[in-house]
Amino acid sequence: MNIEKIETFKYYESFNGSYGVKLPDQELEYIHSLCMNSYPYETGGILIGRYSDDLKWAEITTITGAPAESKQTLCSFVRSTRGIITKLKRAWQKQQYYLGEWHYHPNASPKPSALDLKTMVNLSKDEDLGCPEPILLVIGGSSSNWLQYIGVYVKEQEIELYEINNN
What we know:
Blueprint: E1 9-13, E2 20-24, H1 25-38, E3 44-51, E4 57-63, E5 71-72, E6 77-78, H2 84-93, E7 97-106, H3 114-125, E8 135-142, E9 145-154, E10 157-164
Parallel strand pairs: 2-4, 7-8
Antiparallel strand pairs: 1-2, 1-10, 3-4, 3-7, 5-6, 8-9, 9-10
């Protein structure tokens, strides 16, 4: 008997409906496993995916772990760039793109720190990056109670996204 696995998603949208993110449950589970493996240290990586034809929604298709040489401490994470260009070139061949960043705040709120906000604003202004509306996903809490934040950064403005019912 051939059983086809049905992919399920979580959907997040801004209050005004201008921005949305589609996140596969499988990728969210992968992030949780990366967080558990790094505990009690912060970790992170990049978000790769595609945009809907109307550019309203971004679908995250791939989440990377912390590249080699990243700096992980109890209260900070600095992502290395080692191997990122190679991963992005492979993604581009499949018409997938850099969408943003993710990281983990162990046993803490998933709300972005002042440094997180500054970093995302700087990424949104980086013309070489070619991502004027980067997404930030922050995982907080622990394996007994995962918390998450998703935001889009547009013209130096944070736009928080909220989970919506996908039924």
